[in-house]
Amino acid sequence: MLIHHTPGSMMAVLQEMQDNGNCPHDEALQYLFFLLSKMALNTLVLSFWLQSITQSFLGILSISMYLVDLSMICTISWICWFRENLEAHKFLCFSLSHSSTVYSVLPLPALLAGALDYAAHRHLVVSWDTPGRTAGRCVVVLLMWALACCYSYMYTNAELLTIQYKEEMQALVCPVQDSTVVSYFNLNLFIVAGAILLLYCREVPQWARLANKLSRKRAWLLAPKSDLAFSNMPQKLKEGTAEDPRMDQDKQDLPPLFVSLTLCFILNWTPYLLMSVACDLLGFAVPAYATVNLLWTACANSLLAGVAFWCNSDDLGPFCKLPDDICTWSFYWHISKENYQWPASKMRNKRLSTLSERLLYQL
Fold this sequence. Notes:
Blueprint (H helix, E strand, L loop, with lengths): L1 E5 L2 E10 L6 E2 L1 H22 L7 H25 L4 H20 L1 H13 L11 H25 L5 E6 L2 E9 L2 H20 L4 H13 L1 H5 L4 H13 L17 H25 L6 H4 L2 H23 L12 H7 L14 H13 L1
Helix pairs in contact: 1-2, 2-3, 2-5, 2-12, 3-5, 4-12, 6-10, 7-13, 9-14, 10-12, 10-13
């Protein structure tokens, strides 16, 4: 059980008892179930992100976060086994306080490092998972965890306190931190994305239907239908005539690219953003070791991937190879392009043409 204390912090109730010390009610198992639920959620997200999780900084951070959560579960399980001892409560307080502090300081540097990771690799058709890049990301992740642990060691108050909790009830509590960065990130992202779509609220339903229709024709977009078409596709790309002749020629207004990409993002991440914003508005006390999870890192990675796709779309079109398994950015690129074509002028660069042909044959 968690209760609000001051802005940015809360109290974790470890044990409740009457004023005379009788009928103690231990809460250690509640935190174990809480962490097990987080681990189940992380595992679910991991199952959708396995293909490209090692190709981005936030993906490597997510793997390390998964391992840290697993170690926390082992620690809390050991504490629950010896919870009759008062020292066990002190150790539980130490674990919860320091873990919440570490998780509370991770999001901001993680976002900055993730953005730098995308900015450092502008040629997005080139492989992201070379050994050197992966090793560099691992080193940065380890350094980030080390600095967060040092910060927690210097500034975390892990003192076990006894407070008057309810009438004739006392509680054994310890201070834990929440993550204001995650809360503001999700809130601002929800507001900005919602505002963009509200500007085009009349067209959004038909664009969503068009995206669904386009995704059903995914096989045609990603691969030619015959050996002859396969051999002619690179030349068609250079001429700007690579399109599906069976695709309906929609005469409706086409959305700007940033609106299409916003639609792609919001259709995939609305449930998570709504849940996060609702918890904040309703005043639920959620510690940082719960809010900073793989669901948030995957959402942040999708945001950075979408921005990178938008910035490079003029040069690379739908051939941007991004480490994001959640949002299908290339389909929403086609929504913004008349007849789903890529202008021939974008293929004049010989190196880009070669890379695009190579990626096409890989698909």
